[in-house]
Fold:
Amino acid sequence: MSSQKDLRARARALHSRITSPGCEVSFLPTGGVFLTARVEPASQLDDEAVWRAYAQWHEAVHIAQLLTCPYLCLIAYRTATIALAAFDNSADGYGAGTRLSELKQDLEQVRSELEMRHDSGAYPLQIVETHALTKGLLWAMPGDAANLTSAANYLYKGYKQLGDLDIYLRVLNEMVEHVGDEAAIKLLPRLCFLALQTNEPVDLFAQLCKRVKSEREVDKVCAFSPREFCRWIGVKDIVLLSRSLRERPSPLGNHPWLRIFEPYFEAFESISDVDDRLNLLMGLRGGDTYAIFGPKVTVYENGEMISSVSDINHRFEEEWLQVTSDLVEGLKILASARRDDESG
Structure:
C-alpha cells in the first residue's frame, strides 16, 4: 500500500500530463479521467462555468456507455490493452513484449474502425459523441430541450471553437432539419444508445434515423416512455437491454480491466426495477444519474485526490490511479511514436 504522500505526488503528475498542451489520450479506457483532472469549479456563472457543468454530464454518459454498451466497452478494452502493453514494454526498451510498431498498428486499426464512414456519412465515433453530447445536455438541463441544440452549437462552435465539429454536431444538426430542435435532442440519445448495443452501430443507427425521419407523429414518439420507445423500435429483449455488461452472458464482464469500474457497476446493478434502469439510460431527465455514472475520483492540480467510494484503505483510489497513469503514459508513448513516423 502506497503512502498518501506518494499517492499525491503520482496524482499531481497524472494531472500535469493530462492537462499539458498536445497531450493525446483517449477518454474511453480511463473512466472519466478528463473530468477528474479538472481544476476547482468556476466562481461565477459564465461560459466556462456552463461548459464545466455540461462536461460533467457528458463524461458521465461515456462511463454509462462503458457499463452498458458492448461496442464501446470492447473498443475501450482493446485500446486499454494496447496502451498498457506499450507502457509495460517501455521499461525494457520495447524488447520484452510486443513490438512498439505492432502496438502502434493495432491502435491505428482501432481508430480506423471508429472513424470508418457508412454510406450515410456517419461513423462510430460520431455516434459515440452524439450520444454523449445530446444525453449530457438533457441530463444537465432537462427542462429546456427545445433550446439545447442552440446551446450545443454555441458551446462547441462559438465558445470552444473546436476544429472537428463534424464529430459532435453534424448528426444533431441534420436531425434538427428533419424533426426539429426538441425532437432531435430527445430522440438522438435513444437512437445512439440502441445502435451502440450492436457490433455494427452505424448500420442500425442509419436504419433507426430513417424510421424517425419518416414518422408523421414525431411528438407522440418523443413522449414515449423508454419501454414504449423500445417496443416502437422493435426491441425484442427489453430486460437484457437494461442489464449492465457484467450481468449479461458476455465475456466482456470477465475482463480484468473492468475492475476499475466496479463501483459504477455496483451502483447501477443495485437498481432492481427494469423501468427504473431504462429511465436512467434512455429517459429525458438526469435525476440521480450522476451519483451512479459520475467519476468516483476527483484529482486536483495540487495532487489532492478525493474519492466518493467508501474504502478506508484507499485501495480503489490507488488502483484507479495506477491503471489510469499507466494508460495515459502508454498512449503518450504510442502518440510520440506516431509523430516520429510522420516527421520522418
